[in-house]
Specification:
single chain, 5-stranded parallel beta sheet, 8 strands, binds BIS(adenosine)-5'-pentaphosphate
Length: 220
Amino acid sequence: MEKTQMAMLKLVLLGPPGAGKGTQAKSLSEELGLAHISTGDILRQAIQQDSELGKEAKRYVDNGELVPDGLVTKMVIERLERPDAKRGFILDGFPRNIKQAQDLDGFFAQEGYSDYKVIYLDATEKTIIQRLGGRMICKKCQAVFHLTNIPPKEDSRCDFCKSELYQRQDDREETVRYRLSVYAQATKPVVEYYARQGRIMEFDADRESSVVLKEMLQGL
Ligand code: AP5
């Protein structure tokens, strides 16, 4: 595929918590000039700002439960209608159940997006627990680090803006295990839904980020 076509890509990124969706979506969006739309990031920002959406979403996000479809789908469609997304996007964290996938298909049909692709990053439970247990996020610029895999240069400080790093409330081990059960029950069927449509491109996300990125770019 040529570079100009790559910049118009419509991508959906699926995978369990901690597979590296946010990490890879950031690299892919920079590499290909696509809008990175992360539902988790939008919800956490709304919570930080204490907006109406944030107030409604907080207890679900903190407990690792899915935020009700009505709230999330509306938020995603509004974001997809913005001009930057019309030129190409990576959807990270949506859809997360069959209803969301069907609603997204309805929107894509209306927009004439018949050629969108679905990237599925798979990772083992051992990797997921190790990654989420060590993840640290910058309070200000949201840059993502890992205590051992991608350690910040200064203890608990962001390399880029020097602000404090924090651990997500839903990254505590018992909540991670609950999120994995939500994934298995609600989101895994979405992988099968897209597999039936012949859209899935699957990658082993247990490996180093740069290896996974290179393979995805080759696959696209
Ligand atoms: P969301 O933020 O989307 O969480 P998630 O899907 O559980 O995914 P994570 O952000 O935990 O992991 P990731 O795969 O992005 O991994 P990352 O790249 O950070 O959603 C949070 C919550 O919001 C949900 O629980 C729900 O409440 C709500 N929500 C969101 N979308 C929703 C929807 N559609 N419907 C309803 N509710 C919704 O990597 C993890 C760590 O590993 C990092 O420290 C990173 O540095 C490190 N790392 C990454 N890749 C590698 C690698 N290859 N090697 C070594 N380390 C790596």
